[in-house]
Amino acid sequence: MKKKEFKRSELSARERKELRRQNEAKAQGIVSEDEKEYKEKKAKIYFVLFLIVAVIFISTGIAVPTYMSCNYMFERNPVAVIKLDAGGKTFEMKYELFVTDCPRATANFVFLAQQDFFDGVVIYDTQNDWMRFGGYTEGEDSDGNLIFNHRSDDSSFTDRLTSNFKEAHYTKTQTKDGEQVTVTDTTEALKYTLKKDDTNFSYIDFDYALCANVSGSSASATEFQINGLNKAREDKLTKADGTSAKTMTTQVFARPLGESNGVKEAIEYVLGMEKGDRVGDYFVTTSTLVKITDVSVYNYETEWLQVKYENGFEDYMTEIGGFSYTSDTWSNSHISGK
């Protein structure tokens, strides 16, 4: 309802004086007590509503991711935030992912991150001015010696991945007591290898480049490498006695994001740590284990969540030619569905 406006002749002298005072106060930016009280009540109501919304967001785990996503929404490429714990000293590294030039390597990394694959894994090798990480977690053998267990062999983890792979890939038929039975083994789900992207990027193009493993061994796609400065090096691991070498073919798919990315400080600190004993035939880690505590990716559109991809990640990667086939990995016939 529109407020009635009084003509000056209809107002008493006292009312005209009060109206003039209010107009003068408004012109000078002075707020009346009534208006001040009204605004304070309004502010309190808004503050209470804000607190209620904040509590809802925090309790459902939405607030922090939403805030972080806003930080990177104007970046041209997706951003990966990798958190490290080096014996109590923590680091946060930010990387720009080359999603257009390296769609296969980027999708593979994002998929693993979304499954919390990297949470708690160790930096398992720091030779040759690089830092390698992937699915290895800390363990010990029967004598109490340090060993690394691979997350792809942990069925309690791989059981969660079945919606992203064809059932035929992690099930097989075998004879038991004269009958054919179907056996499920989800640890096969991550035993694929990654096909190199059609890119000319090299790790000598960038300092502290993030690289994917495109070697031919089983589960190699779950291994990654961050280099030191952009200098040429051999991607080889040699046994202590020097009798043989293991080659890891790598492909750059990310570089540090901008200037304040935390990468240089983290990598130089880890590479400067005292070396520990060899683990297995090839790995040399740090005396105090460095672990990845979290990997989060922002500003990436997860294509394989679309309904048209019946088997999620596997179908999407097959569509973009993301898998490589060797004798000890997924078979071509399985991937093609033939």
Can you describe this structure?
This protein is of the alpha+beta class and 338 residues long. It has one domain (75-336): Cyclophilin-like (Cyclophilin, Beta Barrel), CATH 2.40.100.10. The protein is 28% helix and 26% strand. It is built from 9 helices and 18 strands. Strands 3-4-11-10-14-2-1-17 form an 8-stranded antiparallel β-sheet. The termini are far apart.
Which secondary structure elements does this structure contain, and how are they paired or packed?
Elements: H1 13-27, H2 33-59, H3 63-72, E1 79-86, E2 89-97, H4 103-114, E3 123-125, E4 130-133, E5 136-140, E6 146-150, H5 155-158, H6 167-170, E7 171-176, E8 179-184, E9 193-194, E10 210-213, E11 224-227, E12 236-238, E13 245-247, E14 250-256, H7 263-271, E15 275-279, E16 283-286, E17 290-298, H8 312-319, E18 323-324, H9 332-336
Antiparallel strand pairs: 1-2, 1-17, 2-14, 3-4, 4-11, 5-6, 7-8, 9-18, 10-11, 10-14, 12-13, 15-16
